[in-house]
Fold each of these.
Amino acid sequence: MNHFEYINNELYCENVPIAKIAEKVGTPFYLYSHATLKRHFSVFKDAFKKIDSLVCYSAKANTNLAVLKIFEQAGSGLDIVSGGELFRGLKAGFSPDRIVYSGVGKRADEIDYALKTGILMFNVESLEELELINQRAEALNLKAPVAIRVNPDVDPKTHPYISTGLKKNKFGIDVNSALEGYKYAVEKKHINLIGIDCHIGSQLTEVRPFADALENVKKLIYKLKDIGIAITHLDIGGGLGITYDDEVPPQPVEYADAVISSINGLDVKLVLEPGRVLVGNAGILIAKVLYRKRNDLKEFVITDAGMNDLLRPSIYKAFHAVEPVIRKGTEKITADIVGPICETGDFLATDCHIEDVRGGDLLAVMSAGAYGFTMSSNYCSRVRIAEVMVKDAEFQVVNQRQTYEDLVKGESIPAFI
């Protein structure tokens, strides 16, 4: 249950009618369900309760402080990919020793920040990065806890832009070279080599790719053990998919059973980095219809939300269901749901089968809780929109809509112009 339901033909979030929120807050805005966020985390965490594990929410999916706080209170750790996400995580109350730092492009200042903070471990993506972490740890008179990210060359069967586990991807060290990478790392005086990391992609709808990747990683762990390198942490990343349209991804318990079976016999603490599966269906985007338009080929519904607010349809051709907030029972039309941005690629949905909506009607773009606001921008000098959270019969703005003044904050016209 995702707590977005119609009651008497009106869409509610938990016990609040969405039209009421729109009247108070204005459109467009992102809307999150507190109950759904809590439930999704609980179900995922419980699936792995039989083994020693740490669930680290993948912050990049949705970094709103209120969302982060819900997971922190529920006992989550945090997976980060930037100094900014580390800052947000600490603001939300996450304990540093439950924070894992991933990502291919860590800067020296970000590495210093994480070292001084005392995070659980860095997921290292290259030997050059490892060298820099060692140098920065030496300069700070610290030892850096490290896992090496291994690329298992497994096809995750997902969109190529969110596939990360193939040889042609930029991530990690290929599994055949990893043994030499570990030998190199163990010689570094300021590196504490504790783990192995593997992440093959996002929005996976099958268990098999996870199992295949873990088989490759498991072989490497045994090889490391044979040469005296003991691995205490196995980070298997995230990637479990959600239902956007007609996908039928495995349930967390099914995923957990496959993972636990695959690592049977390994004496390691399992680290997991779920993102989309926790927040994707816990959030929606609310937009208002501005105009209707048609030509010889197409019908268009023009809204006040665009690709700068929700980028996924434009760059991934991702499907998001679009529903009227108030069902009127009108005849269905087939139309492209488009925004105000001056790009042909500015659309929220194409060939959408929807009620015959008109100017002023509200639309809900579903399954928008992950990679929605976090990927939004000020393109065309559009203000970033508000984020709202509902709990039971209450709602609160958890991120204020920007103003025009915010658009030029920090900018200046130099005296020499």
Amino acid sequence: MKEEAALARTVIKKRLAGQPAPDIWFLIILMLLVCYGLVMLFSAGYAVALYRRGDAYTYIRPQLLFAAFGAAAMYAASLVDYHIWHKLAWPIMGVSLALLAIVLFMPEYNGCKRWIVLPGLGTLQPSEIAKFAVVLVFAHIISLNHDRMQTFATGVLPFMVILGAVTVLMLLEPHLSGTLLILGIGAVLMFVGGTGLKWFALAGIAGAGAIAAAVVLLPELVPYAMGRLSSWRDPFADPLGAGHQTIQSLYAIASGGAAGLGLGNSRQKYLYVPEPQNDFIFSILCEELGFVGAALTVVLFLLLFLRGMSIAVRARDKFGALLAVGFVVQVVLQAVLNIAVVTNTIPNTGISLPFFSSGGTSLMMLLGEMGIVLSVSRQADAGNGNVQIL
């Protein structure tokens, strides 16, 4: 047994030694975001954790564990040839759709059904897996049919069917923010993949029709959506109800000023902002670290985007380029939407801040996806580079 274990270690070491290095700058930026997020999660969440659970480490303890598992998954994914995801794209999409259907039979939390309860293990959020599946399937289809993307049958229809199925299931939860994010990711991949611009114009018309159909077929969404719009336009009209979260978030941001009150010194996290460890963690960051901390957060996400696009441009093939674009755009678009919600730029959609908000499924999936981007960068460095996306 000892000889076999030694032989296995030797084989692994040789294989790792032959692996080209990943994009080190992308990795550094990513690790800075993860560490920054963990620090802010503990600072923003310990007060509400102590109040709700009697343990200040309720949120940070599992998040650290998931970060460790996610880092391991990221490392493993970075070593695997990303072309294996060609074969796994459709099976993962099938599993994703099944989980989106199963979650509809789960108990409600805050009026939504977004989590599958796993006894003894915690919860699983199927929408996170759906984002991953959509990127995989879209990259798979586009890379195989890139020369026919201008046609409706190839460049529009299959994507419309996939997005339609995912959208209906997510609206039934309801999960408007996740739906908008997935539609945005899909649109970006179709645009980068070469879908004709005329189809996007027609999609806008079809989207308006879909919204009208949703109003008729899913009437329970109307008061849900209208309530969000009303509280966005004038949160002070209902300061103790629908507008409470937004108002407290704006108070936190305003009180932070230029340099902030200091790490750990937020006042709004003491049960004023309802979800300081999750959707509204950015407001606590602004209060404690001020404009400087907020600007640093935005800069890190911007650098991750730019470096990710650099990896996509240097990818050896279209599949790798589309994977890099899809996963990086997912992170950055989600961050933009979260910051827009927290600052009341757009209506409250209940979307988390990547790498910062509490949530094990999200963190592990994000780190695993970043591992795939690193895998693309390994092969880009090994190849001759300069492969065009379009």
Amino acid sequence: MSQATLVSSYVNLELRRTLRDTGFVIFGIGTPVLMYILFTNVGGGSESTREWAVTAMVGLAAYGALSAGLTSGTAVAEDKAAGWLRQLRITPLSPAQVVVGRALTGSLMVLPAIVVVLLTAMLANGVSIEPYQWVVLTLLLWVGSLPFTMLGIANGYQLSPQTTNVTNIVTNLLLALVGGLWFPISEFPGWLAAVAKWTPGYRFGELGWATVDGNAPSLTGVAVLAAWLLVFGGYAAYAYRRSGRKA
């Protein structure tokens, strides 16, 4: 069996296990949709109704992707506690392939959270952008969510199930709030807006906001997000090796 086939089989297994988790399906996908409906039908900020519907669509789709990526770490922590990781170590899968397989699984679970929010914006608020923008927006948010998937996985390898769950929830809220995914950073105090521009949450949302405005993502934003991916990826590799020494 080839290495690619091994990883593919592992990803298929993890996907089936994840999709059987009805809590993830309901809350992981349903929460950002509910927030989008509330945010765009109660108040609406200082922008026009249409502009706010588009801005919030990107922000809440990004938030859903961020949440789904981090949530993948909770499953890792639960598997570690149940002894599943010890079983994986006696399979032909290498440590790198296990981490990559987990990252691919987490990334695939991000897609439904993105797509459902975009469909809600289209159907509930009549959001209309160019066909290519829908495609580019979905792809950029999907690929751009990888740093958060790696962070969630790293926490899962490093921490206990209970601590992982709490840590990922708090991290999720902080990254979304400070990153301007719920409210524009133009409403922030000057010092907080300056800090927000260096956070992965803001640069992630910026990928989508640039797309719906008809612009390419900024090189600075891509560079900042890539740097966070390296940091979180390194953390995941370290945490996996450390979990092996504890096993």
